[in-house]
Design goal:
This protein has helices at residues 2-6, 60-65, 85-93, 153-158, 172-185, 195-199, and strands at 8-18, 28-34, 56-59, 71-75, 97-102, 116-119, 137-142, 163-167, 189-191. By secondary structure, it is an alpha/beta fold. The longest helix has 14 residues, at 172-185. The chain is globular and about 55 Å long.
Length: 202
């Protein structure tokens, strides 16, 4: 266990707030934002997390010491580019409910310890999802270029009601309208929201 607790990760921040998106909207949650990403999406709202050299090296023990909620969300950047097994083992041993947000391009080390996976396929990866990824919900960022046809038929059938269309904030009103029109025309989709941004919190 001491080896697990001494494992380090490049961390942008660890903080407690409310879950602002998806199925767990409104829940208290502690967020672990890891640095580094394998994509460079122009609409990314955490571009500062791309560069791992600017991140703070934190041990698993230090990360646990900063966790306040029972519901823990691992995000980024793209967290799956790291070996998450030590962190996931420690969180599981602490009886945390573990969720992760991923662009879906990689498998997740220690995935059997995760209770909830949010996959957000990106145009920069041609909306492809790694074959080993087990998702619980899907989130698509909607902008002027987004085409609902990128959502595979198998995803529409299996995840109906858990497919979120979330507006790109660069042109919010236009993208809200587009999300609404798409959801009205496709009952398997839902309009998503970033509640934390509307509330003005992290």
């Amino acid at each position: 266990m001491s080896t697990i607790l001494s494992t380090t990760y490049p961390v942008m921040e660890v903080f407690t707030s409310i879950q602002g998106e998806g199925f767990h909207l409104g829940k208290q949650a502690s967020f672990i934002r890891l640095a580094g990403c394998n994509l460079r999406c122009p609409f990314c709202d955490t571009k500062e997390s791309w560069d791992m050299s600017t991140a703070k090296k934190m041990s698993v023990r230090d990360i646990l010491d900063n966790i306040q909620a029972e519901h823990v969300v691992i995000t980024g950047g793209e967290p799956t580019i790291h070996n998450l097994s030590p962190l996931l083992c420690a969180l599981s041993d602490s009886h945390k409910y573990i969720a992760i947000e991923t662009n879906g391009t990689s498998s997740i080390s220690g995935s059997h310890l995760i209770q909830w996976v949010t996959a957000s396929p990106k145009a920069e990866a041609n909306y492809k999802i790694h074959q080993d990824l087990r998702a619980d919900e899907f989130k698509y960022v909607v902008n002027d270029d987004f085409d609902i046809g990128v959502v595979p038929t198998c995803v529409r059938r299996q995840y109906a009601g858990r497919i979120w269309l979330q507006p790109d904030s660069t042109d919010m009103q236009y993208n809200w309208n587009k999300c609404m029109a798409l959801a009205l025309a496709n009952p398997w989709a839902r309009v998503g929201v970033q509640l934390h941004k509307l509330m003005g919190v992290r």
